[in-house]
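Researcher: Please translate sequence to structure tokens.
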Amino acid sequence: MVNKKPRNMNGDGSLYWHKSTNRWVAQLNCQNGKRKYKYHTNKREANALLKQMIRDDKLGDITNNIKVSEYLVNEFLPTKRYKKPSTYNYLSTIINVHLVPHFLDNKMSTLKPDAIKKVWLQMSDEGKSASLINKCHSILASAFNTAIPQIRMTNPCHEVRKKGWVPVVRKKEIVPLTNEEVRTLLSESHSRTEYYPIIRLALATGMRRGELCALTWKDIDWDNTRIKVTKSMYVEPNGNVYIGTTKNDKGRNIHIEPETIEFLKEHRETLKGNGLLYGYKVNLDSHVFLNPLVGSVMQTHPVTRGFSRLAKLIGLKGSRFHDLRHTFASNLLGRNVPPKVVQEILGHQTISVTMDIYGHLMGTAQANALEGFKLPEHT
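Model: Translation complete:
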């Protein structure tokens, strides 16, 4: 029952009082021919609802025709905020390099699961990894989630995943270095390269490459024989290098044994001597790992390349710098160190991450732990 005649709002809709329900009605004849209603007991709020309906309806023509590529770059990407620039830059790279070229003409409102499947198959045929395709799929799915319900009511990526059209990521088996390989690596890196100190500490602490490159002398607590890991080095796509927080934004302390303490003291004295010789200073704010001739900070990419060249040269082809971290973790688990302690040392967000990566090594650790075990004599 209506006791007030519907009032036209500048030709864009109507606002009127509905007596039987004691509510104001915002009514709009949409561009698609359908009629929309929204209700509120307060006239001002109902008028605000009407204005929003008008804006959404006018936007409808735009959103119904917006292309996936345009939405990803102009609507989705600008809304993402991350603590680390590297995270945003990685997302931007995935979108601009891998998604935009494949979805230039597809519309957000009409993209079908089969079209997405076709793109993933094409990327696979081009030699793109299953891991990259999965990342692309996750980002695309996230973008479509933000488009619901303004542009469409369902997410086509869900059906693609449900039907198994996204390639399965096969876990790479972790093969830690053997003791003999570690001895060879340390010996050869010491005689052939400037990377021996960083390789030595990586094997003794399990620190990530970026954490090692960001380490300064004031991060070493000599009295308590531990390293305070609070930052990491990152490289942006444009090549800019910056120091940020650790991967999980959580600092941690890593205990170091006396032999490594002595190694670090000797390494510092060596750098001080080189500094006097080549004209640079070493103080508490100096990085632990420097180019010994010029005193510049060792950066992550050169360390990776230098390690790969060395590994290939000494017969460890395929070994990566990150394998030093895996070797450290496997040594701990092999000595029956509790997984929770391993998680804390490595700086994993949760113990499930640690178990997911190293769980297959636990069988050996359990066998070692139970070796020689027997119940007491009894009758």
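Researcher: Any highlights?
Model: Residues 43-65 form the longest helix (23 residues).
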